[in-house]
Amino acid sequence: MEKRKLSFWEIWNMSFGFLGIQFGFALQGGFMSRIFQTLGAAVDDIPGLWIAAPLTGLLVQPIVGYLSDNTWSPKYGRRKPFFLIGAIIASITLFFMPHSPALWIAAGLLWVLDSSINISMEPFRALVADKLPETQRSNGFIIQTLIIGIGTWIASNLPWLVNKLGISNEANAGIIPDSVIVAFSIGAFVFLTSILFTIFTTKETPPENLEQFLQEKKASRFIPDLLLSLKEMPSTMKKLGLIQFFSWFAFFTMWSLSMPALTEHVFHSPKPDVKLYAKLNAAEEPLVNAKKEIIYLNAEKEKEYKAKDKVYNNAADLVGSATGIYGLSSMAFALLLTFYTMKNKINRKFIHMASLVLGGLGFIYMFYATPETLLYAFILIGFSWGSILSMPYAMLSSSVNPNKMGMMMGLFNMFIVIPQIIAALGGINFLYKLIGEAHINAMLLAGISLIIAGLCNLFITDKNAISG
Fold it and tell me: Which spans are transmembrane here (predicted)?
């Protein structure tokens, strides 16, 4: 049975929950490295602290996809229960994250946060395929990207905005600034409320053949179904996987190292090392008093540290705001494609290739950017981000069994998390140091990776995947 075409606002409502999901991702991607540095992490240790996030995705996504494929309730729907569970856990974690008293607690909460975001996110991708006819798939994923762009821009600017409203972005050594704490609290609220909006405004439709669905559900087993899905993985999905590998290696590099790289190279305001200003114990860790405040060598050193840390925090806010520009340009990218795809077909392959190459050039431009021109780098990166969030999924949804959409979307996530795991386990540090020791070279590495991803689109030949 042919699915009915949905209006713009129906697609908007069913995708609105992505606003909250992206608040979570943007705060995580833009400010977790700042939190890690504040709690004492060295720059080269930061990618390793992110390892829990992609490892979680590798495990959670296929399981959630499988469970949502095999769930149906006339009252609660098919995908919506997973939206809600993930949103509740993510919102609680976002609230407590900036209150982390130690580095290991922040790293553990990142694991919980990424798990819960994954629980909410992948069923949203499957919902587009569930409800939209083939002719509207590109449009559906592009509208999701439009909402994601809005969320990225607003969330990335939150610490800067709340600071401008009078909430301090300064704090004692080892303490997260109030501006970051308030931003994460706002993110927690938006995450939950936007998911609830989609749940209450979107009605899921039952499987086309409910009796057959229930019989298949009884016979299904996760491991055999997983192995069968891996065996049946279409060639287009494998080729898209290669593109995703290089794309997400680039963006993981940005999320984990752009804050220290840009505050250092573009703003010339690196995070000061408190060990150079404080009294140290036998393990060469800063001594603290009964109130857990750093004991400085003297009043002059305390004053010097706080002055440099203030400059760093101001630079970090500006880097966060500049980062939000890629959400804004991805939103513009999605908006243009939304209007165009309402009446016209597009060549997904060439749009994706051009977008990724432009993003790669944006990363390379960071090496030459000034505080005034950094936004141009993120504008270019936004084109690639907008395409990454829509084109691969549109191409994939035209190539796989619709009855296994959740499982296949979950497996597709392997091509997202595996490069991130490789990057976190030392891939970033090893490769960028082949270019040079300066942390900005990590952004050059991201640019090279994204350009390779763009060129890999030439391997896509399936006409159904390309045109939509």
Answer: 12-36, 48-68, 80-97, 103-121, 141-160, 180-200, 240-262, 318-338, 350-368, 374-396, 408-432, 438-460
The full length of the chain comes to: 468
The answer to whether 47 and 428 have CB atoms below 8 angstroms apart is yes
DSSP letter for each residue of 41-98: --GGGHHHHTTHHHHHHHHHHHHHHHHHHT--BTTTBSSHHHHHHHHHHHHHHHHHGG
Give the H/E segment covering residue 153.
Answer: helix 137-164
- Binned at pLDDT 50, 70 and 90, residue 407 comes out as low
- Would you say 409 and 160 are in contact if contact means Cβ atoms under 8 Å apart? no
Most confident of 24-28, 63-67, 411-415, 462-466: 24-28
139: amino acid identity, one letter: N
Region 67-75 average pLDDT: 75
Mean pLDDT of the 386-396 span:
82
The residues, any chain, with a CB within 8 Å of residue 268's CB and separated by 6 or more, are none
Closest CA to 392 of 137, 38, 117: 137
* Amino acid letter for position 255: W
Mean confidence (pLDDT) of the chain: 85
Yes or no: say if 456 and 383 are a contact pair by the CB < 8 Å rule.
no
CB atoms within 10 A of CB 21: 27
**DSSP annotation string for 347-380:** BHHHHHHHHHHHHHHHHHHGGG--TTTHHHHHHH
Nearest by Cα to 56 from 421, 388, 406: 421
Q: Tell me which CATH homologous superfamily contains domain 8-466.
A: MFS general substrate transporter like domains (1.20.1250.20)
pLDDT of residue 141: 74
Calpha distance 15→119 (Å, rounded): 15
Query: Distance (Å, rounded) from C-alpha 119 to C-alpha 354?
Result: 31
Please state, for a pLDDT cut of 70, what percent of the chain lies above it: 91
- pLDDT-derived band at 32 (thresholds 50, 70, 90) equals confident
pLDDT grade for 285, boundaries at 50, 70 and 90: confident
For the residues 226-230, what does the mean pLDDT come to?
Answer: 71
Query: What six digits make up the tokens of 364?
Result: 């390379």
Rounded CA-CA distance 117/86 in Å is 6
Q: How far apart are CA 426 and CA 416, in angstroms?
A: 17
Query: What is the distance between the alpha carbons of residues 465 and 43, in angstroms, rounded to a whole number?
Result: 41
From residue 440, how far is each of 31, 32, 254, 338, 431 by CA, in Å? 17, 18, 10, 35, 12
Determine which of 145-149, 164-168, 367-371 has the lowest per-residue pLDDT on average.
145-149
CB atoms within 10 A of CB 24: 29
Residue 39 has pLDDT above 60, yes or no: yes
Q: How far apart are the first and last CA of the chain?
A: 20
Q: Which of 8, 68, 409, 83 is nearest to 207 (CA)?
A: 68
